[in-house]
Each structure stands twice: as structure tokens, then as C-alpha cells.
Records
---
Amino acid sequence: MQKINPFIERSLISFSVQFCEVSYGTLCIAPDDERSTIPAMPFVAAQLLAQVCSWLLYTFEQAIFLQGQCQRLDSQLCGSLTKREREVLTLMCLGYTQHCIAEKLSISPTTVGKHRQHIYEQLGVHCERDALFAAYQSGIFSILDFIETETMCQK
């Protein structure tokens, strides 16, 4: 026989604490101490509290996941990038295409492609999106780097 928590037995209403398909538990509202047939808090407030708890728990879960991913990326940082690779990565972060990067740096698009491949290898990633994420998370760039580069490109 399963033992039931006395608080759950005593509760008047309960709400599922879940976000999308993930269930975190149940929020149980006990009766008011003075009036045992009335919940200790209004139904709408309890429903809102359950929803907020769901969002918070989901947010914490995602934050922990992202922190783990960042640590994984940091540990994958195999080596340092050359000055030219940093320039290419900076222009990638600014949204420039491979051809625009080639024009800005006065090199061929094929050379830009080679730099991109080496950047991916050094950061331990396989695509541009992950390279940009890794560059940001590992602290390779600050916002000041982007401002300086953008000013340089406009001259």
C-alpha cells in the first residue's frame, strides 16, 4: 500500500506543475485554517502560481542545460585562432556572407572558406551557428570588438 502525503490528502484543489510535456509535480492548496471548505488562496491565484512555478522550473532546467553546453564548448576550444581567423570570425558574427568577407579582407572566397573550416576545427563545431555561439560563450569577443570592426569596415 502506497503511503499518501497527509498534506495532499488534506488539500482542496491541486494543479499540475508542467511545461509542455514535462511534468514537475503538483501544487496542492490546503483549506483555509478558519474555514475548512474554502481553499487557502483563490482558485485563479493558485492556478497562476502553478503556471509561474512551471515556467520557473523549465527556465532553470534550460539554464542548467545551456551552462553545461557552454562548459562543453569551452573544453573543446582546441587552440587559438590566428589574427586573420579572428577577423573572419568577427565578420561572420556581424552577419557578412563569405563573398562579402572576401571583399572586405581582399582575399578569395575560397580562402575565406578555408579560414572558416579552420575556425570550426579550432572551436570544435561543425557549422556557422555553433561557431558564433562558441565564440560568444568562450569570450573570444566582446561587444567592443564588434564596434571597432564595424567602424573599420565603414572606412
---
Amino acid sequence: MWGSILQRAEASVENQDTVSLRNNVLALAEVAKLYDLPVVLTTSRAEGPNGPLLPKLNEMFPEVEVIDRSLVNAWDDPAFVEAVEATGRSNLIMAGILTEVCVAFPAISAAQEGYNVQAVLDASGSLNDRAEQAAMSRMEQAGVDLTSWFTVSSEMLKDWTKEVAPEQAAHFSERTGFYELVLESFNASSAE
């Protein structure tokens, strides 16, 4: 789940730069595509001050109907919960513009309903470090696992002999500077 369009929310996110935030949001979305994960997209009043969903996400998931809600906690919206239940999954991966609201509220609510929830912190932002620390503490106390998109992707891969491994390596290389260096080193040693 992602909140509103990043251009409008960038002014609210202070704990990471917008280039990194966009990269991480799209990296997580690419993980969902790579592993054919069911995706639920939601906005908070797309016609209001929060704005619509990041257009790139609409392009990546054209078959997914975006749930536009007025409720602050996505879990309080019956359409959102129905969409989550329709996936048939008990493990949820969540991200949103503001960790302390867009992620924490539905993650805690879903955990209370018995879901295993991973909150992807680097594909989410916060008003400041204190707000994120408070949200992280609340989520951990509720049983939500805190993670990153790279960790989620690595957990999905599990084994470098999987058929998807070359795509995974390319994805890591595209989205992280360090993995591009790893691949360059590997390719150079393989050519010898």
C-alpha cells in the first residue's frame, strides 16, 4: 500500500531525500512484480490535498483498482480490508508516505487481526526521526516486523539458483549502487 503522490508529500518527508524515497518505493513495487505478489493500492482523498497515487505505480499495476478513501487508517476502510482479504494472504508487506500514519495505523490494525505484517521503512518516510522512532516502537510492540525493500526482496529470493535470480541481481544492480559493483566484480572474475 502506498499513500499519495510523492510530489505533494515530499514536503512532509524529512528523514530521507526524495530521490531515495522514490527509488525505494519503485524498488519495492518491482519486487512485487518480480515475484507476482498481489498488490493493494490506496490513496487518501486523491482529489484532496494529499493528491493521487504516484503515476508510475499506476503504470506498473494497471490492473489494480486504486482504493480512494477518506479514512486516515486504511484498515478502517471496508474496501481496503476486502481487497487485502481477497488476496488470500496472511503475510502483508506495507509501505506508505508517512511511516507514523500511512504505515503504522494499518500495520498495527492488521497485526491485531492476526496478519503477519512487514513494514518497509525505506519505502516510507517520516516527518522527522523522532516521529519515525515513535512509529517504529509502536509497530514493534504490536508485533509488526520492520524491514527494508532489499531485505524483502532477498527473503523472497532465498536461493541464488532460482530461475528469477538473474532478474533479481539486475534489480539489485539497478536500484543500489553497491550491487552494481558486486556484479561488475563477478562479471570480471567470470571472464578470466
